[in-house]
Amino acid sequence: MKRISGNKLLVKALREEGVDTLFGYPGACTIDISDELYKQDYTKVILPRQEVALVHEADAYARSTGKVGVCLVTSGPGATNLVTGLATANYDSVPLVCFTGQVARHLIGNDAFQEVDIVGITRSITKYGITVRDREDLGRIIKEAFYIARTGRPGPVLVDLPKDVMEELGPAEYPEEVNIRGYKPNTHVHIGQLKRAIKMLGKARRPIYLAGGGINIARANEAFTKLVEKTNVPVITTVMGRGAIPTNHPLYVGNVGMHGAYAANMSVNECDLLFSIGTRFNDRITGKLHSFAPHAQIVHIDIDTAAISRNVQVDVPIVADAKEAVEKMLEYVAECDTQEWLDEVNGWKAGHPMAMKQKPVMTPQDIIEKINELFDEAIIVTDVGQHQMFAAQFVELTQKKRLLMSGGLGTMGYGLPGAIGAKIGNPDTPVISISGDGGMQMNIQELATAVLEELPIISCIFNNSNLGMVRQWQKLFYGKRYSMTCLRSGAACRGKCGEVACPEYTPDFIKLAESYGARGIRVTKKEEIAAAFEEAKKSTKTPTIIEFTIDPEDLVYPMIQPSGTLEDMILDC
Known about the structure:
The protein is an alpha/beta fold.
């Protein structure tokens, strides 16, 4: 029987699993793997500038392609730098397989150089994690890692590779099948429960669909749109579910929750049936739990058994893959009697449209509306903050225009590396990132990656010189005490923001872009927006930074106040 090193088997496994892109950063415990990748001409290896960004790039690659994102980092700090990205992927159900280097087995537990128990550290933020202790098990463990990452509710899997295990000779065969005792994910819909839910849908007078991120993950958008049209039932979405149905569809009401549309929040408050598919019912959606959907029976379809009735008690639980459930529903449903209810919902939409106040100066809505106008097809990746909520409110989404973001963890710094990962996975699709000046500076070093990989992404910076979302809370709920949110504050004005003028300081993002070899454009007037995007679209190999000067007083509305209900919407200050 042929025997090969663990390093060779790993590269063979990557090929067998169809991994066409690897995001990696080398080190002492993975240098032999790097060498094997080179010797076997495994050329699509992306070298980011830091592991935190690396895992975000693999994450967005996975979200945008439906494939498993794959990471390779060294032991110690290389491994611990994955933590935030693993948590981000875990919250948002993103399939990743992350390989971490580890010291040799005889050194584990001895405080060796760059030794950490990365499996223990990440146990609560991964779907599964394991240290390979025996070379004979390596192939099976890698095979299981990919299977676990992509099946059931997708998620990140971590495989820790001791250096001596990878050097050791062992079986050359890579398994073709997986048989994991105790892991048998159920994705098949229970027809009896589904028919019960459909019967409730037919009897309801004020039904509404709540579409979560599970529909986008399952690629069930087209089937879900058909279901909505066949039943004539209005739709609201979570932020992560936005795009489950085209946002210009007449039956689409808007996002629900903390920064949701007035009509969407009122629909939850007044509906008699909430038909939820692929959502976790987290606190940003529900507000006070005892007041959520007070008049409604609730149906909940989700692939994750643990998500059902965890936060909201449901009347009909259905554990199933969203796409399979929706396609099965299409076989049984009929049009519902909803015209009176639709008239009421449309009245809320007309009376409280999603729009910012018109101003002579440039607003975030002005910028996003130009993106809608100039890009029929795009992947839009946001960072986290006010700009993220503006994007969730105003970006028009279709089957050709998608929105990616860190939803569950809310990770600042996701935008730029996320755009890089999405562009690598979708080279023929325009990719636009939207970040604040705070989030952009968390991973701005990835401009080097974008330049060297010749990725013509367009990276928009909404620059208000503040950590805008936190500042909004300080303005509305903390007596305008702007502590630790002004990005111009320092020795000259520490502790006195809002009382004294802060220095006129902000990084020169245009010079920063140019220093990395990217292009930079500054926009200060709304009349300049279209020309900036048209100029950026001309680039075929070089990333472009567009910096937009934004008023820090542009706030995100509606907003649910802390510990409020969906009725407690602040529509404006």
